[in-house]
Each structure stands twice: as structure tokens, then as C-alpha cells.
Design a protein that fits this description.
Elements lengths: L10 H13 L5 H16 L9 H30 L10 E11 L4 H7 L12 H17 L12 E9 L4 E9 L4 H11 L6 E5 L6 H9 L3 E5 L5 E4 L10 E4 L2 H5 L5 E9 L4 E6 L9 H10 L2 H12 L10 H28 L9 H13 L11 H6 L30 E4 L2 H16 L1
Parallel strand pairs: 1-4, 4-5, 6-10
Antiparallel strand pairs: 1-2, 2-3, 5-9, 7-8, 8-9
């Protein structure tokens, strides 16, 4: 890191203050910063305190977090591999789930301008007949989409796109943006900015589809396993590769007009207990990625939803506290890092004890860390040491006799079922155009 000549502190000191700040139980940002400064001075001495005020801490984090974040991601990922080697890969693949969620921020003017979608300027007044026509059109549209799940923002919100390791159940990296951001756009930016490991496999739900998006993943040398539904049109019998029952092609009309080659994909089908699931992957060899491995990876993708729940509910970040956009982004970045470090500490100890990674209780781990920070000088018996307590920080293992869900839960989503993809047989014209484009690329 490049620091100003007058800066006397080291980056590690700033990281300590930021992490202890997001681990603090204080409700406000100013109080949490003061608590972190006091804690770091008590644990590591006054020389380890990088800054001594909330204003100085936030200013330093706003300036240096873009430099610190990639380095910390690389460090955490290395520790993940050391602590969870058995679940590091599925076969040869490093499975990363991708999904997004919105995080609320205080309703201030600055947050609204930064995170809300810009409003369209008002035009000239329309005639009364046009108003009646528009009203009737909106009414018909409302009737057609009455049962469709269409969530709307209820205030300024930040969009979080998270990459999550499926085997270790830990965050890998992430991207932030306004509430109207594109998940696919965020992933494409991460592909450009970061270097992912060899044989990385991105697994996502039905929102991460499209020729251009899949082409971007392939151009970066990675693979994908994506769920598809009725929003995707595929072709069969195009003749680019030897025909098999599971070979399909993604080749929209626009790509054909631009003389872009078709994407050769493999279509996988299995049941998840609710219905049939259709997945596509660019891995055509069923020995490299079997149906059983694909099913295991996709079923494990559901854990990213629990990660969002842990961040919002257990960790208390459903609504951030910062009243300005810059501080809000910093708060969420370091909250995610702090949560990842908590999970990594628990995974390290529980892996030694043979405890499955999905049994970790994040609430228990957070209580343990806070109690240790509050009284670090207390003499504890061996059974109450930090490693021992982390090994026991697991969820309940007993069988429930009744359902945990409420009968009248008011915010349950009623999302439509995706259904199967639309598969059409390629026409003679499409087959001819595909061969011409591929022949031209071989000649070039």
C-alpha cells in the first residue's frame, strides 16, 4: 500500500480497528469505533492504534479499503483452503455460488441520490383521453401479473452480489452497487478485476442467463452451471458437435446476425423434491462433471440464501447505520469481512473435531468472540478456552417435533416456478449459417 509520508501507522493496525469495530456490540457507528479503539489499545498496546477518532478511522477506511479488500480476500481464501482441504473442490472443480440481495440504508437525501433509481423527468401534460387509456392499460397489466412475484424497493437500498464457496460455506468475494444494479454485470466486473483459480465453476439460479453473459465467463477461461427455465430458448440438432441427447446450443438471433458462434452446452435434469430442475453447463464431458456432482453442487447453492439471512438477521445488517453512501459501502464491506473471519475461525476448529461445516452457529461464535474481547485477561479452564468454545459453537442437533415456520408469515415469497426451457430444432438455414461462421473462424 502507498501511504502518505506523514502516516505513521501500518495497514494491519487499520484492519484491526475495522474488524473490531464491526465485531462490537455497540449500536452506533461512532460508539463502535470508540469501542474498537479502546479494545485494540487494551489488547495490543497504544502503539497499535492507527487512529484515535471515528472521523479519522472512517476517512482512512474510505481511502484505503479499495486497496486492502483484494489483499484480504486473497489471504482469507488461502486460509480457507488450508482449513477445509477436504471440501475445497468437488472433483476437479472449485464451486462458487453467485446470488444477490438488497441491504437497506437510512433514508437520507445522499443515500437516496446514490442508491435509488433516478426518476424520469416529468413531461408535458397529457390529454384526459390519454390518461384514461394509460389507466386502463395499467389495470390490465395488473390483472395479468397479479400472482407474479415482483418485489419493489421500500427505501434506499444497496445491492450486494456475493460469491460464496459451496463446499466450505464461506463468502469468497463480493461487489456492491445501487439497488438497481445488475447481478450479471457485477460478476462480469469481478471477472475483469480479480484472478480466479483454475477450474472455477460458477453456479447460479435462473437469473444468470444470456448468451453474452455466458460468453464472458468462457472468455475468462472458467465454467458455469446455471439453472434455466422458460426464459431461455435453446436449440438442438445444430450439427456443430456430434449429436447426443443432452447436447443443446445457445444461439440467439442477434448473435447469429453478428456472426458470433453458438455456445455448445450440456442439459442436465434432476428432481429436487419440488419439481424438475434443468441445468446447463459448458462442460460437455460427463466424466469431468457427472450428474451426481452437478446435483450436489446445485443443491449446495441454497446455502448462499442462509448466508444472506445470517448477515441480515444474526449479524444485524438488514439495515446499515451509515447516513452517507461512502460510509455505508465501507460499513458493509467490513461487516462482510468480519462475518467471514468469524465463520473461518469456527470452521478451523470444527474441522479438526470432524464437525460438518454446515453445523456452525454464527450467533454462538459472535457471542464467544465478544465475551473474549470484553475480558481477555480472565483465566479460563482448558474446557473454556477459545478453541474449545468454538468447537462447541454448533446448531441444535435434536429432531424438532413441530415445524419452525409460522402459519401466518406475512412476507413469504410466492415466486413463479421456472418451468422447462424452450428447446427448438435448428432449421436448415441456422445449420448452414453455423457451419459458415465456424469455418470462417478456423480459416482466420
Amino acid at each position: 500500500m502507498r501511504l502518505h509520508g506523514n502516516v505513521k501507522w501500518k495497514p494491519l493496525a487499520l484492519v484491526c480497528l475495522a474488524i473490531f469495530g464491526v465485531w462490537s456490540s455497540q449500536p452506533g457507528l461512532v460508539e463502535a469505533a470508540k469501542d474498537a479503539i479502546t479494545t485494540v489499545a487494551k489488547l495490543f498496546g497504544s502503539d497499535a492504534v492507527a487512529v484515535t477518532s471515528y472521523q479519522a478511522l472512517t476517512a482512512a477506511l474510505v481511502r484505503h479499503t479499495p486497496q486492502l479488500l483484494p489483499a484480504l480476500w486473497a489471504c482469507v481464501q488461502s486460509l480457507m483452503q488450508q482449513s477445509g482441504q477436504a471440501a475445497w473442490r468437488v472433483g476437479k472443480w472449485l464451486p462458487l455460488a453467485v446470488d444477490g440481495s438488497r441491504i437497506s440504508v437510512p433514508r437520507t437525501q445522499q443515500n437516496e441520490e446514490r442508491f435509488n433509481k433516478p426518476r424520469k423527468p416529468r413531461g408535458k401534460k397529457k390529454s384526459r383521453a390519454n390518461k384514461r387509456s394509460r389507466h386502463a392499460q395499467r389495470k390490465r397489466q395488473k390483472q395479468r401479473t397479479k400472482s407474479h412475484y415482483d418485489p419493489q424497493a421500500v427505501g434506499p437500498q444497496m445491492w450486494l452480489t456475493l460469491l460464496w464457496h459451496i463446499g466450505l460455506r464461506l463468502p469468497w468475494c463480493w461487489k456492491l452497487g445501487p439497488s438497481y444494479s445488475s447481478e450479471r454485470g457485477h460478476l462480469e466486473k469481478l471477472l475483469d478485476e480479480l484472478r480466479f483459480l483454475e477450474f472455477t465453476l460458477f453456479c447460479a439460479d435462473a437469473g444468470f442467463v444470456g448468451y453474452g453473459f455466458w460468453r464472458s465467463i468462457l472468455d475468462h477461461g472458467h465454467s458455469f452451471l446455471i439453472r434455466v427455465g422458460g426464459n431461455v430458448r435453446l436449440l438442438k440438432g445444430l450439427g456443430v458437435v456430434r449429436q447426443r441427447g443432452d447436447i443443446v446450443y445457445c444461439w440467439p438471433d442477434e448473435a447469429m446476425r453478428k456472426k458470433q458462434p453458438p455456445l455448445v452446452l450440456r442439459l442436465l435434469r434432476f428432481h429436487d423434491g419440488r419439481g424438475e430442475v434443468n441445468l446447463v453447463t459448458n462442460i460437455l464431458d460427463d466424466k469431468e462433471l457427472t450428474v451426481e456432482q452437478a446435483s450436489l453442487i446445485y443443491r449446495g447453492r441454497w446455502g448462499i440464501e442462509l448466508q444472506f439471512r445470517s448477515l441480515k438477521q444474526t449479524y444485524g445488517r438488514a439495515k446499515l447505520r451509515a447516513r452517507t453512501p461512502e460510509i455505508a459501502e465501507i460499513e458493509l464491506h467490513w461487516s462482510l469481512l468480519g462475518l467471514t473471519m468469524l465463520q473461518l475461525l469456527a470452521m478451523k476448529e470444527q474441522t479438526r473435531a470432524g464437525e460438518p461445516a454446515d453445523k456452525t452457529s454464527i450467533a454462538a461464535v459472535l457471542r464467544i468472540i465478544r465475551s473474549m474481547i470484553a475480558d481477555p485477561s480472565e483465566t479460563r479452564p482448558p474446557g473454556a478456552s477459545l478453541p474449545s468454545r468454538l468447537r462447541n459453537a454448533t446448531t441444535d442437533s435434536y429432531q424438532r417435533r413441530s415445524k419452525k415456520q409460522s402459519r401466518n408469515y406475512p412476507r413469504r415469497k410466492n415466486e413463479p416456478w421456472t418451468g422447462p426451457p424452450i428447446i427448438l430444432t435448428a432449421t436448415k438455414e441456422q445449420t448452414k449459417r453455423a457451419r459458415e461462421i465456424l469455418a470462417g473462424r478456423r480459416a482466420a
